[in-house]
């Protein structure tokens, strides 16, 4: 019986690890979540989005948007106007990341405070 419990625990750990790896594979890099967060306030054209996400190069933004679109987080809308208007918006699927983004925001704030406290101790 003990051996089955060990196998079960190992399986759960393996499954959890696999799920985290899958999530990180889809959201890897430093730009995907900031792009999703920037689009959460509304649709944006490419240049607007580049200004909203400071430090991102146009080539990188283009690549990240394509990957986000392939994974169902972002849609690209082309309006039949002259000149052609292209805008990006998040999908309903992106909203499933709400708790993840909120948890990362909270942890990031906590981490900054922790670092500040450590630096004050050193001074």
Q: What structural keywords apply?
A:
2 domains, Arc Repressor Mutant, subunit A, 123 residues, three-stranded antiparallel sheet, 64% helix, mainly alpha
Characterize the structure shown.
With 123 residues, the chain is mainly α. It has two domains: 1-28; 31-122, Winged helix-like DNA-binding domain superfamily/Winged helix DNA-binding domain (Arc Repressor Mutant, subunit A, Orthogonal Bundle), CATH 1.10.10.10. The protein has five helices and three strands, in the order ααβααββα. The chain has helices at residues 2-27, 32-39, 46-52, 58-70, 98-122; strands spanning 44-45, 74-79, 85-90. It has a three-stranded antiparallel β-sheet. A hairpin with a 5-residue loop joins strand 2 and strand 3. This is Helix-turn-helix domain-containing protein. Pfam families: HxlR. It comes from Chitinophaga pollutisoli.
Order of helices and strands: HHEHHEEH
The strand order across the widest sheet is 1-3-2
Task: Write the CATH homologous superfamily of the largest domain.
Answer: Winged helix-like DNA-binding domain superfamily/Winged helix DNA-binding domain
Query: Briefly, what CATH class of the largest domain?
Result: Mainly Alpha
**Total number of helices:** 5
Find the count of extended strands (DSSP E, 2+ residues): 3
The overall number of domains is: 2
Protein name: Helix-turn-helix domain-containing protein
Domain HTH hxlR-type: 14-116
InterPro entries: HTH_HxlR, WH-like_DNA-bd_sf, WH_DNA-bd_sf
Keywords: DNA-binding, Transcription, Transcription regulation
């Amino acid at each position: 019986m003990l051996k089955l419990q060990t196998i079960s625990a190992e399986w759960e750990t393996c499954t959890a690890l696999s799920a985290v790896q899958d999530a990180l594979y889809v959201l890897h890099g430093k730009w995907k979540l900031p792009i999703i967060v920037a689009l959460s306030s509304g649709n944006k054209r490419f240049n607007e989005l580049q200004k909203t996400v400071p430090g991102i190069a146009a080539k990188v933004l283009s690549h990240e948007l394509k990957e986000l679109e392939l994974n169902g987080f972002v849609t690209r809308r082309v309006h039949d106007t002259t000149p052609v208007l292209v805008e990006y918006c998040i999908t309903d699927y992106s909203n499933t990341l709400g708790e993840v983004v909120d948890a990362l925001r909270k942890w990031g704030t906590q981490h900054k405070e922790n670092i500040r406290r450590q630096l004050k101790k050193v001074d």
